[in-house]
């Protein structure tokens, strides 16, 4: 059982996933700070010092701070958009190498030769 766990835990995919989660969490904190300390004060300045997170409604002495919910939605949208842009930029730098026509022709020729050998072996039996 320990051997199976070691194989699972130290596979490249699991380690890559763990690194991605840590980096994603750190990136989320950066964007949350951007929203909280840069964007929202600017929005407050434009709207006349209104802080969305402080919006609330009281019903029968029960306070519903819906502003915090709205703030969380805004944070999510900005974080999702930031990650989308970041991934798009990374994908532009990453080059997908497609086989050239010459490589494809060479592969096809090899496959054809292997098919002929297979057929000859079948006839010989």
Description:
This protein is mainly α and 125 residues long. The chain has 2 domains: 93 residues, Large-conductance mechanosensitive channel, MscL, domain 1 (Non-ribosomal Peptide Synthetase Peptidyl Carrier Protein, Chain A); 25 residues. The protein is built from 4 helices and 2 strands; from the N terminus they run ααββαα. The chain has a two-stranded antiparallel sheet. A hairpin with a 2-residue loop joins β1 and β2. α2 packs across α3.
Q: Any idea of the CATH class of the largest domain?
A: Mainly Alpha
For the biggest β-sheet, the strand order reads 1-2
**What average pLDDT do the residues reach?**
78
User: Structurally, how many domains make up the residues?
Assistant: 2
Membrane topology: Multi-pass membrane protein
Protein name: Large-conductance mechanosensitive channel
Family: Belongs to the MscL family.
Subcellular location: Cell membrane
What would the keywords be for this entry?
Large-conductance mechanosensitive channel; Non-ribosomal Peptide Synthetase Peptidyl Carrier Protein, Chain A; two-stranded antiparallel sheet; 2 domains; mainly alpha; transport; 125 residues; MSC/AndL; single chain; MscL_channel
